[in-house]
Design brief:
There is one protein chain. The protein is an alpha/beta fold and 285 residues long. 33% of the residues lie in helices and 21% in strands. The strands form 2 sheets. The protein has an 8-stranded mixed beta sheet with strand order 1-2-4-3-5-6-9-10, sandwiched between helices. A two-stranded antiparallel sheet has the order 7-8. The radius of gyration is 18 Å and the shape is globular. The chain starts with a strand and ends in a 5-residue tail after the last helix. The model has no long low-confidence stretch (mean pLDDT 95).
C-alpha cells in the first residue's frame, strides 16, 4: 500500500503530509519526532490497513512551511495545530500515533480536546520534557542565547545526499533505509550540495518548559484508551520518571518490543501487531 502526498492548510500555514488507507478506515494522525518528518511512518503505515492514516510534517519539518520569522516554537502550539489538521481533513473525531516528541504532543492533545480524540498510541515517549519551576529563569536565558547565536550561524550544506544520510545516522539507531527515507524527504538541493529543510529555530532550547506536576496533570486528564510502546534498547529516559508518568494515565496498556528508539521504522513488523490489536478493540464514539 503506497502512500500519497497531501497539502493541508491551517490558517495561513501549509502543512505537507503523507496519507495511507481507505476513507472508511479509522481517522488517525501520525506525529513524528524532533527533526524527523512524515517519512517516519513510511514503513509502518502499510502494515496498518484498517486505519486512514495521515502522517504530518509538523511546521518547520519536512516539506511543511516554517512558522513566520517573528514566531517562536512553543511546545503547546503543536496541540491546536493537530486539531486544525484534523479540521482540514474533515475529521471531527480522530486517533493519534506519536513517536518521541510526537508522543509528547499526543499526550497533551486529548486533555485539550477530550471530545475529539478516540485513542492514543505513544511510541517511545509520554509527555514533553519537564523542568523544575526554579529552573525557568536559566531556561529562558539559555534559550535567548541560543537564538542570538542561531541568527549568526550559516546553514550547513552537505556535498551530497549520502553525506547527509551518514550525518543523520550518526549517534542514532536508524538503519540506512530508514535514514534515507527521512533525509530524502527532509532535504533540499542547494548550490554546493544539499541542506536539511527543517527550521533551524527547532534546534534552540525552549524558552519555557512544563513542570513535572503540569505534565502529570495532562496525563491524568487523558479520557481515552492509551497504548504506550517502549523499545527495550530505546531512548534512555529516566525509568522512575517514565513509570510515574505512565502510572497516572487512567486507561493504559503498555507493551515492550526489541529494538531502538526508531523501532517503528527499523522493525515495523514488531510494532504493527500491537497497534492492530489496540485499534481493533472497541472504543468510544
Amino acid at each position: 500500500m503506497s502512500g500519497r502526498e497531501l497539502d493541508l492548510h491551517i490558517g495561513r500555514q501549509r502543512l505537507a503530509a503523507r496519507a495511507w488507507g481507505a476513507p472508511g478506515g479509522e481517522p488517525t494522525l501520525a506525529i513524528h519526532g524532533w527533526l524527523d518528518n512524515a517519512a517516519s511512518f513510511e514503513r509502518l503505515a502499510p502494515l496498518l490497513p484498517e486505519l486512514q492514516l495521515v502522517a504530518l510534517d509538523l511546521p518547520g519539518h519536512g516539506r511543511s512551511e516554517h512558522r513566520p520569522p517573528e514566531a517562536v516554537h512553543h511546545f503547546l502550539d503543536w496541540v491546536p495545530e493537530l486539531a486544525a489538521a484534523a479540521d482540514a481533513l474533515g475529521w471531527e473525531r480522530f486517533s493519534l500515533i506519536g513517536h518521541s516528541m510526537g508522543a509528547g504532543i499526543a499526550s497533551l492533545t486529548p486533555a485539550a480536546f477530550p471530545e475529539r480524540v478516540r485513542r492514543v498510541v505513544l511510541l517511545e515517549g509520554a509527555g514533553p520534557l519537564a523542568a523544575p519551576a526554579e529552573a525557568a529563569p536559566a531556561q529562558l536565558r539559555r534559550a535567548l542565547e541560543d537564538e542570538t547565536k542561531l541568527a549568526a550561524a550559516p546553514a550547513r550544506v552537505f556535498p551530497d545526499l549520502e553525506s547527509a544520510i551518514a550525518a543523520r545516522r550518526r549517534d542514532s539507531d536508524l538503519d540506512e533505509e530508514a535514514a534515507r527515507l527521512l533525509v530524502e524527504r527532509g532535504t533540499a538541493a542547494v548550490d554546493g550540495g544539499v541542506r536539511f529543510r527543517h527550521d533551524p529555530r527547532l534546534k534552540t532550547r525552549s524558552r519555557l518548559r512544563f513542570t513535572e506536576e503540569q505534565v502529570l496533570a495532562f496525563l491524568r486528564a487523558i479520557p481515552c484508551p492509551v497504548l504506550a510502546v517502549r523499545a527495550r534498547q530505546g531512548w534512555p529516559f529516566p525509568e522512575e520518571e517514565v513509570r510515574a508518568r505512565l502510572a497516572v494515565i487512567p486507561d493504559l496498556q503498555v507493551a515492550e518490543v526489541e529494538g531502538g528508539h526508531h523501532v517503528h521504522m527499523t522493525n515495523p513488523e514488531r510494532v504493527a501487531p500491537l497497534l492492530r490489536a489496540f485499534f481493533s478493540a472497541p472504543a468510544r464514539g
